């Protein structure tokens, strides 16, 4: 291996966080602020109400999801990994349906 995983993941995650923050400040309807702990604050995820959800979303799908997929490229076929990633919308829709938070996947989701 010629590049450690963190050397790839850190710039990708950092640049996406900065870009998301920049776009949040430009939102014309509810721009982000730098003050306070509200839902529209740039640091609102530190609020007790949102902290565990933000931690889960950062560690779960963020680190353990996308970064592990890149790690698996070392051990598995890229074809297998890309097929699994392409099935994510369908599997997510099915999970949402079975947990009762959304309707059954539509025909275009099944088609792909």
Features:
112 residues; mainly alpha
In words, what does this structure look like?
The mean pLDDT is 87. The protein has helices at 5-25, 48-72, 78-86, 88-98, 107-111. It is mainly α and 112 residues long.
Low-confidence stretches: none
Find the structural class using helix and strand composition.
mainly alpha
Helix content: 55-70%
Measured distance between first and last alpha carbons = 34 Å
Question: Can you lay out the helices and strands and say which pair or pack?
Answer:
Layout: H1 5-25, H2 48-72, H3 78-86, H4 88-98, H5 107-111
Quick description:
With 112 residues, the chain is mostly helical. It is built from five helices and no strands.
């Amino acid at each position: 291996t010629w590049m450690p995983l963190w050397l790839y993941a850190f710039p990708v995650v950092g640049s996406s966080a900065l870009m998301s923050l920049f776009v949040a400040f430009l939102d014309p309807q509810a721009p982000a602020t730098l003050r306070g702990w509200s839902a529209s604050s740039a640091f609102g995820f530190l609020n007790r109400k949102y902290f565990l959800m933000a931690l889960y979303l950062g560690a779960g799908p963020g680190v353990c999801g996308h970064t592990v997929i890149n790690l698996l490229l070392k051990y598995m076929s890229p074809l297998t990994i890309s097929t699994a990633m392409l099935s994510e919308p369908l599997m997510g829709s099915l999970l949402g349906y079975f947990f009762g938070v959304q309707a059954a996947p539509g025909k275009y989701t099944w088609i792909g």
